């Protein structure tokens, strides 16, 4: 059992909380039994190291069995070691080190997608991760992060996807102009989520078409130069007294509305 929180191995794992280290190593941090289980079920080849406390191991034997089935070893660690490795204040007993696995944007559009989600300058990792999870749940074909958005492998973002990061192709560090050009070439309509746009309920016929949704910064939305790249601007109506809607919530509504329309 690994028991020294100051050992070089523990410090190496803990360093993955920093973007600079993730970029240099090509690795990222994965926490919690659910996220680890999704990695084991969908992309076990990405797992480099896996750690668990004995208590968590006994509590989540299904994760241990899944690891055994795909030949991934689990090393026991003390509670103190796990806390030193993890990004969360109260970790859930499992930590893993994974290889990063971004998808090339050309591969996404070569697969004839019908629903794409694009994040332009989305900075909050919780919002970004929730949007990835919603896109996965709605059956989107891919998610694309432009270079101005938060790092896909930020620990909070990874946690907030609850494993969805392993379910669908995700491209990173792309220019929005390149995404829009590729989307149009692939026959997709590009919709910008924007407070000045048409009400979502008035553009329902558009949503039946192959679509790329573009979501901008939490505070500022899309810049004017990026808004004009898109085919239409669309807003989610607010029928109650709320001053505004959280970006991840609005994105979920938009993506699901497209999913509904494409399945009717």
TrEMBL record:
Q: In this protein, which residues make up the domain named RNA 2-O ribose methyltransferase substrate binding?
A: 29-104
Check the record and name the Pfam families matching this protein.
MRM3-like_sub_bind, SpoU_methylase
* BP-aspect Gene Ontology terms: methylation; RNA processing
Q: Does the keyword Oxidoreductase apply?
A: no
InterPro entries listed in its UniProt record: Alpha/beta_knot_MTases (IPR029028), MRM3-like_sub_bind (IPR053888), Ribosomal_eL30-like_sf (IPR029064), rRNA_Methyltransferase (IPR051259), SpoU_MeTrfase (IPR001537), SpoU_subst-bd (IPR013123), tRNA_m1G_MTases_N (IPR029026)
Transmembrane regions: none
Q: Which SUPFAM superfamilies match?
A: alpha/beta knot, L30e-like
MF GO annotations: RNA binding; RNA methyltransferase activity
The answer on whether this UniProt entry bears the keyword Transferase reads yes
Q: Which GO terms describe its cellular component?
A: cytoplasm
What does the UniProt keyword field contain? Methyltransferase, Transferase
Identify its protein family.
Answer: Belongs to the class IV-like SAM-binding methyltransferase superfamily. RNA methyltransferase TrmH family.
> Per its record, how is this protein called by name?
RNA methyltransferase
